[in-house]
Records
---
Amino acid sequence: MNKPDTINKISNNTSNFDVDKVRADFPVLQQQLRGKPLVYLDNAATAQKPESVIDTLATYYRKTNANIHRGVHSLSEKATAEYESARTKVQAFINADSTQEIVFVRGATEAINLVAQSFGRTTLTTGDEIIITELEHHSNIVPWQILSEQTGAILKYIPINDAGELILEKFAGLLNENTRIVAVGHISNALGTINPLKTIIDKAHAVGAKVVIDGAQAVPHTKVDVKALNCDFYAFSGHKLFGPTGIGVLYGKQALLEAMPPYQGGGDMIQRVTMANSIYNDLPYKFEAGTPHIAGVIGLGAAIDYVNHLGLVAAAQYEIELLNYANAQASQVPGLTLVGTAKNKTSILSFTLDKIHPHDIGTILDGEGIAIRAGHHCAMPVMERFNIPATARASFAFYNTCDEVDALIAAIKKCQRIFN
C-alpha cells in the first residue's frame, strides 16, 4: 500500500468520487496565488472549509448569536439547541456511548493537556511510567514531560524504524506493571504513518494502563470508532476536519471522566457555589468552564454533516490513490528522498532535496502558487531520528487532484534548476 511504484494518473472522477464537484464546495480553492491557480497542499496543518461551514458560521452570528445554557430568551434557547445538537453529531461520528463522553475544548492540544493534568496529575506518582512514541507531535510530548516533572513519573518512548513505523517489539519490552499511561498518535502528522492502535491499546490494557489517542490527523482521513478501538481517551481538532479553528473534542470513557476533577473553574461547570465550596456540574459540563466557542462548535457540527454527506470511505480511498500517484511521481525525481515510507500510511508526502533547505523549497513553491509546509512540523524527535533539520511536507485532502501533484513535481524540479 502506498509504495512508490509507477502508476497511471488517476481520473478526477474515480471510485465514484467526483473531486471536481467537491472542489466547487471550497471557495478558497477558486482563487489564484501569485498569478497562478492555488494548489493547497498544507492540509495536515489546517484544512480548508466548505461553503456550508462558512454559511453556518455566518448564519449563527447574523441570526442566533447568544450565550448558551443559562438564558431563558429565544436566542439563547436556539443557540443552546444548536450547540448540543453538534455534541450529538460528534458522539455519532466517533461512535461514543453517550454525549456525556464528549467534551468540547479548544483543540487536540487542550484535550491532551486536560487528560494529563486532570487524570494524570491525580493518579500518577513517583516511579509510575508513561509511554509515548518518537512519532508524536509536540502536543503529545510536552504535556507528558510536564506531568512527569510534576509527579516523578518516568517517560519512555517507543522507537521507530527507518520507514517511520513503530517498533512494536520495543513497545512490548517497555510495558510493565508500572505503566500507567500510553499516549500515541493515530496518524503521524510528519510522516503519515498509521499506527496499529488496536494492538497498542490491547497490550497497554493488559498491564492496566490507560490509553490516550491523538486523533487530530486521523478524523479527516479514516472512520474512527472509539468503542471498537476501546481507547480510554481520544482527542481531535475541528480545523483539520474542515471545521473552524479554536474548537476540538476530548472523548473520554464516562467512568474515567466522572472520577476526574475539573481542569478549569468558572461559570457553567458548577451546580452551586458558596463562599465555602462549590458543587461541580454533571458531565460533560464539568470540563467546559466559561463561555465556550459556541459558533465553533456549531460550525464543527456542520463540518461533520458535510463529511458524512460526502462519504468518508470513498474520500479516503481517493486520497490513497492520490498519494500513490504522488509517491510514484516523486520517486522519479533524482535527488529527492522520501522521509517516511511506512507500509500503512496516508495523506502525507514528506521529502528532502539534495543541498536545498526545505524552507527554500517552500519559498520557491509559494512563488508557483503551491502551499506546502517546510520545517520540523512540531515533531522534532522525528527529525532527530532521521538526522535531518526539517522536511518539505505536501499533505493531501480529498479536494486535491493529480494535476496538482503534477504542479508540485514541476515546481520541485524548478527548485533543483535554480539551486543547481
---
Amino acid sequence: MKTDNLKSKLTKEKEIELTVTGRKSRKPIPRPVWFVLRGTELLLLPVTGTSSQWYKNILKDPLVKITSSGQTITGKLHPVTGKREVAEVIQLFEKKYGPRDVKRYYPNPNVAAGLPLD
C-alpha cells in the first residue's frame, strides 16, 4: 500500500487506530488515538504522557500498526521528549482539535511520539 495514498486520506481523518505490542503480554493492543501530520511525519500525543500504557509499550517495542479508512501501515514510533518539540506537537493538536479539547483530554502532555510516513 502506498503511504502517499494513506497520507491523503489521513488529512481528512480525526482519529486513527494505533496498534502497539503489549510490553508484558506481547499481544497486539489496538486503540483509537488522535493524531496530527507535520510534513511526512505522523505525530501522537499520549493522553497521560509518560504514564500512558501505549507510550510505555512503544519504549519496549516501537513497531506499531496505524489503521485508517481500512488501510494499514506499519512503522517504528519514536519518542519525542524535548520540551520545545513536545510544545510544537501540542500546538499542532490545538490547531486541529481546539485548545479546550486538548487541555481537557491531555492532562499531562510531557512527551509525544512520531512516525515517519515516507
---
Amino acid sequence: MSTDGSAGGPGQPRGTPSHTPRRLALLALAALVALALSVSFGASGLGPGDLWRTLAGEADPATRTILLQLRLPRAALAALVGGALGIAGCTFQALLRNPLAEPYVLGVSGGAAVGAVAVTVTGIGIILPWTLPLGAFAGALAAMALVLQIARRASPGGMDTRVLILAGVIAGAFFNAIILLLLSMADVESFRSAIFWMMGNLSASGWGSTAILAGLLLPATAVVLSLARAFNLLSRGEEVAYYLGASVERVKLIAYVAASLMVAASVAAGGVIGFVGLIVPHAVRIAWGNDHRLLLPASFLAGTAFLLLADTAARIVVAPAELPTGVVTAVAGVPFFVILLMRGGRR
C-alpha cells in the first residue's frame, strides 16, 4: 500500500499528480479572467477598454483612480476571501471526513457576527470604522478557542471530530441567541448596518485591509497545503492514517486552527459569505476526485474565481445600487449545489 498517496495504491483518491499542473493552470487562468472582469465592470460605466488604457498609461486620472484605487483592491479582497473560504471548506471536509461540511460549521462565523454586531450596536463602529473588522476577528478567535476547548475537554483521549461538530453546533446556537439579543436593543440604523454586514459585503475594501488580510491568509494557506498528504491518509480512517505514519491528533489540531484563522480573517474582511466553502470544494471533488494534493489548491483557485464573479454580479445587477455579495453567492449556490448533488448521486 502506498503511504504517500500516490496513484495506484489501495484506497487511493482519484486524480493523479500528472494531471495536477494542467488542471491548476486552467483554474488559475479562470481566476485571472474573473479578476479582469471584476476590475472591468461596475456601476461607473467604465469597461474593459478603460482597463486596457489604464494599463497602457493612457487613461485620465479619474479613470485610473476608479480602476486602481476602488475596483482593483475590492477585486483583490474578493479573490483572497473566495480562495480562503474555498480551501477552508476543503480543509473542514477533510478534517471532519464529511463532504458537506463548510467553513462556518464550527461556529466561527457566529462568533465573528457577535463581535461585529456588538461594535455596531454600541456605536463604536460609527466613531471608529476600523473597529468593526477588528471586533469580528476577535469574536471569531474567541469562538474558535471556545469550540476547541470544549472539544478537547469532552474527549481527553484526543480531538474527536464528532465532539468537535457538536461543540460547533452548540456554540453557534449560543452566538445566534447573543446576536438576537444585541439586535433587539439596536436602533434602526445600527440594526440595518448589522444585518447588511451579516449578509456579506466587500464594499469596505482598500489596499490596507487587503494587505492585512493577505498577511493573515497566505501563511495559513501554506500550512494547509502542506497537510495534503496527511489528509489523503485521514480519508482512509484515523487508525489507518496512524499506522501509515501520520500524526493524527497533531494534523487535526493544525488543520482546525489554520482553517479557522482563515475563516475568521475572511469574515472580518467581508462579512458572512455563504456557500463558497461548501460548493467549491464539493464541485472540484466531483470533477477531479479526492486527492488533496490537487483538491486543496484547486479549491483555492476555484473559490477565487467564484467569488470574483459573484461580487461583480452584485455590483452590476441593480447598478447604481449594490447587492450584498453573500446574497448573490446564495442565490447562485443553491441551484448549483442541487445540480451537483443530483449528478453525484447518478455516479
---
Amino acid sequence: MTTTTNLPSAAELHTVKRAYDVQRIRRDFPILARDVRGKKLVYLDNAATSQKPQIVLDAIARYYEQENANIHRGVHFLSELATSKHDHARQIVQKFINAPHAHEIVFVRGATEAINLVAQTYGRKHVSSCDEVLVTAMEHHSNIVPWQILCDEKNAKLRVAPINELGELIMAEFEKLIGPRTKIIAIPHVSNALGTVNPVAKIVELAHTRNIPVVVDGAQAAPHTKIDVQSLGCDFYAFSSHKMFGPMGMGVLYGKTELLEAMPPYQGGGDMISSVTFEKTIYNKLPFKFEAGTPDVAGAIGLGVAIEYLNAIGMDNIAAYEHELLAYATEKVSAISGVRLIGTARDKAGVLSFVMDNVHPHDIGTILDQEGIAIRTGHHCAQPVMQCFGIPATARASLALYNTKDEVDALAAGIKKVQEVFS
C-alpha cells in the first residue's frame, strides 16, 4: 500500500512567527471577514463550536474532489490513498495528546459519543447494583446523562461532587465521595459553562490509589491547552473536532489499551469484525473493534489538518495568548455596573459567563446579535451548574485563538448598549 499522505506542507500551514500574530491567524479563517446585520462579525461562541481555517476547508474539499473512496478493503488507488490519509490522521491525534499507541485512538462522532461508548461498554461490564459513579456538579449533560442511563439500568447510584461559589471543585468533598462502591469517576477537564480548569492529574492520582478508572471530558480543553494523557494518567479522554477548528461530526476517544481490549464492542457491523458466521463473530483488533461501519474519512482528515494547524502555531503560544485575552476580558466586563460574572475560578480557560441586573440572558444575546456579536445564551447544556448558582441561564462569551482585544471592547460596548435599551 502506498504511504503517501498528501497532507498540507509546512508552508501551507501558514506557520506564524514566534511573536503571536493574531491578525495573521484571523486571515486564515474566511468567515471572520464577513458582516452580520451590517456590522463586522465578532464571533465569541467558540465553546459551542469554533470556526474553521481555510486549510481545513481545503483539505475536506480536496478529499471529496480528488480522493474520495471507502477505506481498508479496496485495492485500487483511491481506496489506498484514502486509507493512508485516514490512518495518518489517527497518528496525528495520537501525537497531539501523547497517547502511547495509535490503536488507543478511537474515532467517534464527538465527545458525547465517546462518553456514551465508555458508559455502555466499560460501564455495563463493571457497574453492578448498589455501585456508584462519581461526577461533579459542573458537568455538561453529555457527562451526566450516559451515567444516569447506566445507573438506572444497573440500579447503581450517581454521586455528585459539589463546587464552591467560584465554580471550583471542592476537593475535600470530592475525596470524601470516593468510596468502596465507586466504580467510575467522570470529570470535565474544563467546564463549558464556567471555564474552570480542574486538577485532573490530582484527581486521577486519588482515583488510582483505589483502582478506580477516570473518564475525562476534554471537549473544552483540547482547543486551548496542551494535552498529555500519559502525564494526566487518565484512563479515558474524550474530545470533539468541531471545537478545535476541525469539522463537525468527528471526535476522539482515547482509552488505555488494556481497558479497550477488555471492553465489548459498542456497535456491530462492517469493519469492527475479523470474521462472521451465523454461529460466531470474531471482532477486529483495536481500534477497529469500536469503529463499526463506514467512517467519516473526510472528518478524520480535516481533524488531522486542524491539529497540524494548531501545532504550527504552538499550543503553549495559544494558551498564553488566550490567558492574556481572558484577563483583559474579565477586567473589562466585570467593571461594568450591574454585570455579575458566573464562574471566577482561580484557574480558568477562555469562558466568560455573566448575568445582568433585570435583563434575561436571551435578551442580552438578541441585542448583541444586532451589533454583530455572537455569544451563547441559556444553560449551555449544564442545567445543574445553573441550579448551583440559583439562576436559569447566563450569557456566555467564549474565546479562541483568533479573538482580539478589539472584539472584547466591542463586547463591552454591546453590553452597555443592552443596559441602555433596558434603562
